[in-house]
User: Fold this.
Amino acid sequence: MKQEFRRNKKKRICQMCAGKSVDYKDVPIILKYVSEKGKIESRRRTGACAKHQRHIAQQIKYARFMALIPYVK
Assistant:
């Protein structure tokens, strides 16, 4: 008899689809989407949909360019 174990995974809801926005001027929010090494976190880690992940990446790049966050830590 082989038992099957199913994991009940909660589906993550994109925070931007739920109503929260990400702007390059909000440094504490931007830093949630950046790893310790300074890399942009993946969709799997952030839970964002594809459309909003592109938006997050663009806002992080703006914040780096404006020197609000460092390129590398």
Summary: Helices lie at 15-18, 27-31, 43-46, 50-65.
